[in-house]
Design a protein that fits this description.
Strand order of the largest sheet: 2-1-3-4-10-9-8-6
Number of strands: 10
Distance between the termini: 20 Å
Number of helices: 5
Radius of gyration: 16 Å
CATH superfamily: Class I glutamine amidotransferase (GATase) domain
CATH class: Alpha Beta
Helix content: 10-25%
Length: 209
């Protein structure tokens, strides 16, 4: 691996994974791509600085590398877990709660998504707005003690947090599933999310933020 921060993305093999990871706007942020079924057998990804787990992975494949991921975090590295992959079954400290998904909430006049910025001074919000994190919600998380919730639900819970307390490394966990929607060519907010999130992630690794 080079001296520059290295980000390895996990490709679950679905059309939306491939479309997102191959998108010319996003591909430069990924130094390597690992096919999810090969994670347990090929541990080269552990040399990277960041493992970016795209949305909607097969949880069983991630559970198979639960211990390597724990070792990766113990070495002070970063794991990003996008939503809908049952991260609570393979990442330390993650607690997920189900909630009703209202796919069409914005069709109601005066509708409120129920989302709020959790920590407005966080560097991520130099790259994103709350609107860029707002489409629909697939449950919510409990931010672990010492973690920073970046996007909260007004009703309680977090949908995006950064956790530097649970392990020697960093976990960025969310219930959002931008890779699925962007790769499916709908939900413009998800494209905006990735357009802001990935430069922030790369910069945070380079600056050790």
């Amino acid at each position: 691996m080079s001296s520059m921060p290295c980000i390895v993305a996990v490709d679950g093999g679905a059309y939306f994974h491939r479309a997102t990871l191959a998108d010319a706007r996003f591909a430069p942020y990924f130094d390597d791509v690992m096919y999810a079924p090969e994670l347990a057998a090929k541990l080269d990804w552990m040399e990277a600085d960041c493992l970016f787990v795209t949305s909607r992975q097969d949880p069983a494949l991630m559970q198979a590398v639960r211990q390597p991921i724990a070792d990766f975090l113990a070495a002070g590295k970063t794991v990003v877990a996008m939503g809908e992959s049952q991260a609570e079954t393979w990442l330390p400290g993650v607690a997920w709660h189900t909630s009703e998904v209202n796919f069409w909430w914005w069709l109601t006049p005066g509708a409120d998504s129920g989302l709020r910025v959790g920590t407005s001074e966080h560097d991520l919000f130099k790259h994103l707005t709350l609107a860029d994190t707002t489409w629909h919600q697939h449950g919510y998380l409990d931010a672990p003690p010492g973690a920073t919730s970046l996007v909260n639900r007004a009703a309680g819970g977090s949908i995006l947090y950064e956790d530097r307390a649970t392990t020697p490394g960093r976990i960025v966990a969310t219930t959002l599933d931008p890779c699925y929607h962007h790769g499916s060519n709908f939900m413009p907010a998800t494209t905006r999310f990735l357009t802001g999130f990935l430069p922030w992630l790369r910069g945070s690794l380079a600056n050790k933020d």
